[in-house]
Amino acid sequence: MHGRLKLRPPDSARRRQREEKLRHYREAMDALLGQGAPPAQVLSLTGSVLAANPDVGTCWNLRRRALGALGGDWVPSELSFVGQCLGVNPKSYGAWHHRGWVLGRAAAPPAGREDLALCERLLAADPRNFHAWEHRRALAAGQDPEAELAFAGALLSRDFSNFSAWHHRLRLLAPARNSGKGEPGALPPERLKEELELVQNAVFTDPTDQSAWVYLRCILSRAPPPPRIICIYVDREDASLAVIFSRPVRVNPDCPELTATLDGSTLDGAWRSGEGRPRPSHTWLCDLPALPPARPARLEVTWAPNPTPHQVTLQPGEAEAWWQEPIVERELFWPELGVAEAPVLREQARMCRELLELEPQSRGCLLTLALLLAALEPRGHAQEIRQHLRSLQDADPLRSGFVADVRSRFEAALAVLGAGEELSLPRKELSSLPLAERLALLTRLELPGNRLGALPPGLGALRRLQELDLSDNRISELGPAPPLPRLQLLRLDRNRTGGTGMDWEGL
Description:
The protein is of the alpha+beta class. The chain is 44% helix and 14% strand. It contains 17 helices and 15 strands. The protein has helices spanning 11-33, 39-52, 57-69, 75-88, 93-104, 113-125, 130-140, 145-158, 163-172, 174-178, 189-205, 211-219, 329-333, 342-358, 363-376, 382-395, 400-418; strands at 229-235, 240-249, 258-262, 265-266, 272-273, 281-287, 297-303, 306-314, 320-324, 422-424, 444-446, 467-469, 489-491, 496-497, 500-501. The strands form four sheets. It has a five-stranded antiparallel sheet, with no helix packed on it. A four-stranded antiparallel sheet has the order 4-3-7-8, with no helix packed on it. A hairpin with a 2-residue loop joins strand 14 (496-497) and strand 15. Helix 11 (189-205) runs antiparallel to helix 12 (211-219). The chain starts with 10 loop residues before the first helix and ends in a 6-residue tail after the last strand. Residues 497-507 have low confidence and may be disordered.
């Protein structure tokens, strides 16, 4: 078990023990793998092997076959035997699987008290025994979750850093999320208040522990919204249709869930990724036939998981046309946020500020406060958010890449809110370009003096882009060129790797 020193006998005695165990194991396995051993003998032989080493999967399989051939009620004795094996190795995959198999073949399912007690003993010895946690969840399925919530609460009262107990609690609250009256996936207000009080006790007890902070962000969140179409762009000159999604999706060329019609007739062209690779992508492209020059061309796009059609009309004489979904500010900064009540978020932000005065280097507090302020009023709190993220990078240098990505998303989201047809983000320390799918209508994008190591992967969504400035970054190789039909100027000067200049002549 974790952190416990195993006492070993002297070398000579240990060698004799191993030789004796190996002899018994070979004799038992030879007899088991031979022909015609009766079920009673199989049970005896497998019992002697598994009692010493519960991880021999072949013995568990043979034992199940022998039990199936026996009559009578062998469930109680078998459960007792498996309990002894778990005493030898509490994390034996084979033993836990066999226990579930035995319980599934009981004529009348046991009340579960003995198994709950077994799990409780094993978790007291090792709170991270995920086999015991999963077994306990299976036993409690369909039951009133309050008893299990009390059990998890008791473990947390002894140790707030018990990640497994927090996770167990979150799993138990999943049904309550679907019955809430607020945002889909949010907890009911009464339950949310109780959980927030529990988290507050935990973070003020140990502000440096990450488990309670992770749990706080989880109970304030919901499952990410499903992908949906957020932009359609038609280009007459390029004879193409671009469909842009809120999240990367995969479109099967043979049986696509994405369909498009031109003046009521289905387009037969195959869809291809805007990144040029056969993998999930924000942008999917389809070639168009010659569009009528003298009358409007009406296109309609449908995505099967969300069958609401989206329409765009290209008028005579127009070179391009588009439809774009209005931007929801909160989705840019914390798309999984499931709590809509601003007072709840403000109270959590107040708690974080109060705690930062006591523990200014609390990593979980810095990250959570930055996310809360971005969800409440990102433009009004922009400088404070930047300061908290800089402090987080100083406090957690081992995760500097993660913090850089969080900062990049925040700066990109702020820019999206104020973007027109041109966007400039010079020297923002961007390590990536998130939310490129929200920049589909840009004609000019300037990103000089940042920390980009490659061409941003979502550039294929920027179908109208004419000028792209990536100078003075850290780009070492270009990779496949994104499909940007209107691009006229690409700047890549003063790019380097670790300070070594690169020659882009002839590009």
